[in-house]
Amino acid sequence: MSILITSSRRPNPRLRTFCKDLAKVLPDAIKVNRGKMSIEEVAIKAYQLEIDHVIVVGKGRGGNPGRMIFLKIYEDKYEILPLIIGIEGVVLIREIKNADVPEKVASTIIASNTDQLPDLLSDALGLSSIEVESIEDLQGTADTIMWIEKVKRKYIIRFFNGQNLRLSGPIIKVNKVVRKCPIIPP
What we know:
This protein has helices at residues 13-25, 39-48, 117-125; strands spanning 3-7, 29-31, 53-59, 65-73, 78-91, 108-112, 128-131, 144-151, 154-161, 171-179. With 186 residues, it is an alpha/beta fold. It has one domain (3-179): Brix domain (Rossmann fold, 3-Layer(aba) Sandwich). Strands 2-1-3-4-5-10-9-8-6-7 form a 10-stranded mixed beta sheet. The longest helix has 13 residues, at 13-25. It is globular, with a radius of gyration of 15 Å.
């Protein structure tokens, strides 16, 4: 179970850095430059690398990442998953004081004190999710913890080092979660 992370075509430096930051905090994740590859070619590349989950990060306003779409790779086909995450803003690792990024991430757990989005991300990324009241309950359970909290009608996703519970990855401000029917191209 690995994750390939790529961007939309012609990404700006902030979008590329965000993809690299995600690759640092997700288990067995690699960032691949998309170049002129179509989505189908990205899926073929993931299959060649024996990767079964893909995140494509698209551009938004003002140079920030704007959305994430997810692909599931099978032996003879790929599926565009029904989840689209609209991103309002991000805080990169370099912008976080005293960020503590683990050297190697072998395990990540999705945790939250809310419902819906953690389960959707768990399905999209092939990671386990758990509902807990406090992140302190999970210290030492994984290399990184993806903590999702709901603030009004939006979500904030933070990555924490699982050993010392210090911020270790980008902070993602989610303004929209869209679920559609899955698309399986011919």
